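Shipment paperwork, digital attachment
Item: protein structure file
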Amino acid sequence: MAFPLQLPAQSPLLTVTQPKPYIWIIELHNGDDSRLTEVLVEEALKPALDAVERTWRQAWRAATAAKDKEGGKGALIIVGKRSQDKFFSNGRLDYDNARKSPHFHTNFFPLVINPLLIRLMTFPIPTVAAINGHCFAAGMMLALCCDYRVMTDGSKRNAWMCMNEIHFGAAWPLSFAAVLRAKVSDARTHRKVALEGYKFTPTEALQAGLVDYIVTGNSEAVVAKAQEVAESVSGLSRTGSFGLIKRDIYRDALEMTGRDVLPRNVASDDAAAKARL
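Attachment content:
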């Protein structure tokens, strides 16, 4: 596989680069805010993950066959558009257009978003989210599914982490709740994230355990720190068991995400309450 790789080929929404033989960077550039549309997920992000894994596995198999104890390393970084310092991903899932489809909730989460979350949570090499700006909604879920998170400190430009569904009246899919519980243990943080839709500053996100590092500077400073983290943990993939262990650690979340059910919306919930009361 040759890098850089742009996907989809005709109208690229992301670029995969390989700054070192064992480190890959996926840069999202679906507009400045990297909104997670079905096209971005299905035709760009999922194939990009396949390309990275395929290339790593080829190197890992060769190192294993040669009994090369230094071979088989690997790590992946995901970053928002690097030419701006405002968004990692605005998430949003393209609600404005997607909700026009009668099959939005029944198809979009089970067939598009949930497989992506499962793929990232079980990816066979360490993953690092380089959060170079606002990280909202599904964009925050994308970051939480990574193994490590590096975020701008917001000193150059404001940056928040936030699940804002409560503010526009959308229910959470089961997969989002499962990921939050798997990645964050504190119930008070669950309440702030899910029920209050709180906007975490980078410092607050660090204190809450939502991110592992905060960095002063622009997108390139965030990527540089993410590469440092990726380098430090890339050797964990040498044995081939990194993804297998994650499957056990996150087993409950993976099972719930795999059997996501249709979430109620505000109107259906009120109709059910009216009939009951």
